[in-house]
Amino acid sequence: MSPRSSDRTPTAAQLADSRRQCRRISRSHYENFLVGSLLLPRKMRQPFFDIYAFCRTADDLADESQSPAKARESLNLYQDFISRIYENRSVSGLFIALADTIGRFELPRQPFDDLLNAFLQDQTVQRYADEESLLNYCTRSANPVGRLVLALADSDTRENVQTSDEICTALQLANFWQDVARDFAIGRIYLPAESMKQHGFDESLIEHTLRTNATTPRCLRDAIAHQCDRTRTRFERGWQLCDRVPRWLAADVELFIRGGLATLDAIAQIEYDVLRHRPRVGKTKQASLFALTLLRRFSIRSRRTPSTRRSATIGEGVQ
User: Fold this and answer.
1) Which one, out of 64, 93, 267, 279, has a CA that is 20 to 30 A from the CA of 227?
2) pTM for the whole thing?
3) What residues contact residue 63 under an 8 Å CB cut-off, 6+ apart?
């Protein structure tokens, strides 16, 4: 259920200030998101910024608060703001712009609740016994973002949601395999214990390797390679979404799939030595991915007749 119009409507100045705050947060945190936003129609950028600002700041509260107790306190406050939006009560800060976007696009509440639930889980759960429990976490920590984006595009069919979930989970997993050392430094291991056992080691090997600054042992590399292969398969299944959403959104979907695959390639290029080196997708590679996606988008447009291009531009909101 989306919120109804509230009697406590913010002033135009308050809304404008909140939108500026969301743009500032989005542009200062995540380079790939900023690059991706350049592919969006102008009228869709602010709604994306509003959602991203919420996701980014909530994630930061989960990861960067002084203590788990402080994180829970802050995340519960965010949960209260979401409740206030859907109960048509007044809000403040970035939530003013978010409430406007939720109302205009009739966004569902569940993805916001799921994200906050996952961030709260981070305060008490730092290990995953098996793949099932890890994927359950991704269902709440990553997939809701894709579902919100599909809702913005009025493309949230069951089939599209399932495919989007594949992409979002893959992006989350690729980040986990890239950041094994960083996550361990803040007390978290996302590589399932079951997978470690299958490859003949446990978390003490990760601790010892990092403490001694040694090369990642072969057994751990094999485990990461196996996980990367499974993650790559998820990305491959996600390609079909590009053909089922509006062209303006397809460009972003393609960019993020290519970016995720590039992350997996970067891990492979260092031979899965993720404890000694953090794999990175370089600036040149990022630029080439953006250029390739942009070229594909406009090559599709150029193949249409002038009359068809004009109607598509009006209907889909492409600049």
Assistant:
1) 64
2) 0.85
3) 122, 186
